[in-house]
Design brief:
With 300 residues, the protein is of the alpha/beta class. It has one domain: Spore Coat Polysaccharide Biosynthesis Protein SpsA, Chain A (Alpha-Beta Complex). The strands form two sheets. Strands 1, 2, 3, 4, 6, 7, 8, 9, 10, 11 and 12 form an eleven-stranded mixed beta sheet that branches. Strands 5-13 form a two-stranded antiparallel sheet. Helix 1 links the parallel strand 1 and strand 2. The radius of gyration is 18 Å and the shape is globular. The two termini are 27 Å apart.
Amino acid sequence: MKPTLLILAAGLGSRYGGVKQMDTIGPSGESIIDYSIYDAIRAGFGKVVFVLNPTIEKDFKEIYEPRLKGKIDTEFVLQEINNIPKGITFNPKRVKPWGTGHAVMMAKDVINEPFAVINADDFYGREAYQVLAGFLKNRLNHQTNYAMVGYLLKNTLSDFGSVSRGICSSDDNDFLTDVVERTSIEKKDGKVFYLEGEKKVEIDENSIVSMNFWGFTPMFFEQLEKDFKKFIIENANQLKAEFFIPLVANNLIKSNQADIKVLKSNAKWFGVTYQEDKPITIKRVKELIKQGVYPENLWK
């Protein structure tokens, strides 16, 4: 059974200042999403599922339904803020989605096979899809043996502002032992720092980080829902609290309910966290086309 690619495209890009999921970075009108799907098809993925914010659903479908028709099976699901367990009310002023873990939950009814999870605005590299596809093809639906593609922190920073990353620890067999979401990570004067409260804490630039490139089986949906119920009861009145995938991953590891293999990558991440990242991303894509990694027109 071919694995599925789940693309988290519901973020509204507050730091970017626009809908970056659909922003053009390729010479023939391609977005980062196009390159992700192209790499996934080459690696053996059989379906792509998009998690969308309702406000961009119409525009998004108008672009990607005709573009992908006949190339890969597609499904679209919505991450709606009111899609929470019955009987729970949340702060009416809340507009921010509930986070990446909640986004993955939205795909439960359309994914019945092992699947990968990616961010819409991150360029992960061809090799990463091949490695994760190889892992997923050997998984059965009921198993709780998962994986994530890890990147070196120094290869995932933006020159134009801070980023959030899941900082990972692993054992001698490359199984994840801990992942902690760190925010406001940036490089200054040759050193990398994250913010803890008001305090800057230095961190090794060679730390392995999660870029939200995960491999799961359908069992993960049940585990997500269980943890989300606890989360939403505690955070329903919060305006910005988010239910992150690393939070669930940590809980599963600590309670021995799953193991997560760290598949390491030396690739240099690129993406569009900030508008200033865009010209660099366009330049890197041109270089990859010149090297023959991608054609000039992906879908021709």
